[in-house]
Design brief:
The protein is α/β, with parallel strands linked by helices. The chain contains twelve helices and eleven strands. The protein folds into three domains: about 80 residues, Winged helix-like DNA-binding domain superfamily/Winged helix DNA-binding domain (Arc Repressor Mutant, subunit A, Orthogonal Bundle), CATH 1.10.10.10; about 90 residues, Periplasmic binding protein-like II (D-Maltodextrin-Binding Protein, domain 2), CATH 3.40.190.10; about 110 residues, Periplasmic binding protein-like II (D-Maltodextrin-Binding Protein, domain 2, 3-Layer(aba) Sandwich), CATH 3.40.190. A hairpin with a 4-residue loop joins β1 and β2. The longest helix is centred in the N-terminal third of the chain and has 23 residues. The two termini are about 45 Å apart.
Length: about 300
């Protein structure tokens, strides 16, 4: 007969990717977790993981078993957490998101969720990898990545705006020429400015430039700051110009601390998605997260 703890150890290894990580998550010793896995593999009759030098890679049978049991085990754990009402900690919800979008748009919407929240900030590709390996329950993604195991729900649209310090303005003749479809003079003027970027490859600026001027920008950043709030502050202080999400600039524009330099006829926008594992679509935490974010 299969012991429930064997399943818990198997799920922990699947999510953590290592026996040591699973042992830390379960507050068990590594030998105990290894013993649970060996017993489960003996019961199944075939390996559930390939033993790589630094990672446990699920086999096809391991993936199949995970999908078969994970919802049931999580349900049992949630039931266990509700026993002795008021004495147990609320269930844990681990989410990944872009730092600035979380701070500006999500924080107040998530405070009402009846869970303990663990947040992880990073790039979408890294967060999605953690989601696929069970280290997160949900991710706010800036793009849809191909995955058979994940579902993506459209959450929001962010628009990007070209901003400068309040003391700087684009010469009126250049704006008028751009309105007539003659954008080269405007492009040349913008190229001559000091640019502040999130990264040396001009990630947000490059997208804005490609859509508005149909070519890659030819300049390099005068200042690289891997923090959008810091970029906004630097622009306000007159260090240069940049392209930033509108939700980050709205209050500064209204207060006159930033100036909107130019609005293209077609807004430069990006879609944001809520990503979660297909097998978790009926999980109470995911349902509550959907309600909280879409309300």
């Amino acid at each position: 007969m299969v012991d429930l703890e064997w399943y818990r150890s198997f799920i922990a290894i699947y999510r953590a990717g290592t026996v040591s990580g699973a042992a830390r998550a379960l507050l068990l010793t590594q030998p105990a977790v290894t013993q649970h896995l060996a017993a489960l593999e003996a019961a199944v009759g075939e390996p559930l993981f390939l033993r790589a030098p630094r990672r446990m890679i699920p086999t096809a049978r391991g993936k199949e078993l995970y999908n078969q049991i994970v919802q049931a085990i999580e349900t049992l754990e949630q039931v266990s957490q509700t026993l002795g009402a008021g004495q147990q900690r609320p269930p844990l919800l681990r989410c990944g998101a872009p730092r600035e979008y979380f701070q500006e748009q999500l924080l107040t919407r998530l405070l009402s969720l009846p869970y303990r929240l663990w947040l992880q900030f990073g790039e979408t590709a890294d967060l999605i990898n953690d989601l696929e390996h069970g280290r997160l329950e949900a991710v706010i993604a800036t793009q849809q990545l191909a995955s058979r195991d994940l579902e993506f729900l459209h959450l929001d649209d962010e628009r990007f705006v070209l901003v400068g310090p309040a003391s700087l303005a684009v010469p009126a003749p250049l704006v008028e020429a751009a309105a007539r479809g003659e954008r080269t003079p405007l492009e040349e003027w913008l190229t001559s400015q000091r640019w502040i970027s999130y990264g040396p490859e001009l990630p947000i600026i490059r997208r804005f430039w490609l859509q508005c001027f149909e070519r890659r920008p030819s300049f390099q950043a005068a200042l690289v700051l891997p923090d959008l709030h810091a970029i906004k502050r630097a622009v306000e202080q007159g260090y240069g110009i940049s392209v930033l999400p509108d939700y980050l600039c709205r209050r500064s524009l209204e207060a006159g601390q930033l100036r909107l330099l130019w609005e293209p006829p077609q807004p430069v926008a990006n879609e944001l998605w809520l990503a979660y594992r297909r097998i978790d679509r009926n999980d109470a935490r995911i349902r509550a997260l959907k309600r909280g974010l879409l309300s």
